[in-house]
# Entry
Amino acid sequence: MTERLSEITARIEGIRQLGAVVNAMRGIAGARAQQARGALAAVGTYAATLAFAIGHTLALMPEAEGGQITHRKGGRILVLFAAEQGFVGAYGERLFDAAKADFADVELFLVGTRGAMLAAERGITPRWTGPLPSRPAGVPRFADHLAEALYTRIAGGGIDRLEVIFGGWRAERGLAVERRLLFPLNRATFPRPVISYPPLFDLPLTTLLDQLTADYIHAELCDVALHAFAAENQARMEAMASAHLEIERKLAALRSRQHVVRQEEITAEIIELAAGGTSGRPSLFDGAIIGVSQIPPDSGL
# Structure
């Protein structure tokens, strides 16, 4: 026999323990993805409120001032939301492949620790890198940090466009790579209501519009980060589901092999016992015959 029963049993136990870890990771990823989707509703409401306020402000401004909110001309910034951790299958590679055509002429802001490793492997040097939060509750502070870095660069001049690429998940189509333009804002996306009674303002309209725009971009960054967070954990769930199926397949094969080896060991033991009974040693039956042959004929028996 090439394998011993104890070796196969030890392998089965090791794979069972690995399966427990895989199931735990799958459960954690599922819980985090659900938390992120729950937070998306609140962020969506916040962004819609800001969009409503921007639309009202634009409606009060002269047409010349209420067209495009920015007039900067120059280069582009691309914020790529890559994977923060591993065990996500090809999810990280798909994001980099989607942005491949942009790397030559953009300033790259890269989100995700695992994504930074993939960038280094591909010879890509981002202008800025930062980790994606480990919990949805950390997204607003992360958005503050990212927005500060973006505004600092935009204030330096030479930037007229800000885009993000991130992973999204929809129940009807699963995981997909999405692209969104954050800057400049398109006035067509902000409906302008008819205002019968203009509200009172403590700030100049241009200043109010700048502040609302900054808050709106912050809300958009939160929304994108939550989508990326949910998509990464969804990808991890799918990877762990595939790993679970492979573990089950491996366990089934090992259990079948364990049964065969057990039968082989039992058969070998039976053959060894049988061989021992015919190796010249007197058996119990042989002893009984010898004893009878030694009884004297005139003993009356």
About this structure: The chain has six helices and five strands. Confidence is low (pLDDT under 50) at residues 67-72, 287-293.
